[in-house]
């Protein structure tokens, strides 16, 4: 059985909090999240944490207005690649997925 999973990556204050396209992007993301909830499909949020974006800080928190609920899956990562050193690929029946993210490249990081 094919599982269709929505993956929302790094939509955190310290990564994209001031992105100029954020309001329009947030509207589109929340629309897609609502579609997945209505269809009872899984929604997975990826949150980055490292020395600059420390777990539990305001920078680490998801952006205000993002439609995340207690039933959503959250996976923590400490590397720019959401698939490296996380259990993302081990989520059961994760076969087809849609990723929603804004480029979070920073010239200050040495990736």
TrEMBL record:
Organism superkingdom: Bacteria
Coiled-coil ranges per UniProt: none
InterPro entries according to UniProt: Isochorismatase-like_dom, Isochorismatase-like_sf
Domain Isochorismatase-like span(s) in chain numbering: 6-90
Gene3D superfamilies (alphabetical): Isochorismatase-like
Record-annotated membrane-spanning stretches: none
Name this protein carries in UniProt: Isochorismatase-like domain-containing protein
């Amino acid at each position: 059985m094919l599982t269709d999973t929505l993956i929302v990556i790094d939509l955190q204050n310290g990564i994209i909090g001031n992105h100029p396209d954020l309001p329009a992007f947030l509207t589109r993301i929340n629309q897609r999240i609502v579609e997945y909830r209505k269809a009872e499909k899984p929604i997975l949020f990826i949150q980055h944490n490292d020395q600059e974006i420390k777990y539990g800080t305001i920078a680490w928190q998801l952006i205000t207005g993002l439609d995340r609920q207690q039933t959503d899956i959250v996976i923590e990562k400490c590397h720019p690649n959401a698939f490296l050193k996380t259990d993302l690929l081990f989520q059961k029946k994760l076969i087809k997925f849609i990723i929603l993210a804004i480029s979070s490249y920073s010239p200050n990081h040495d990736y």
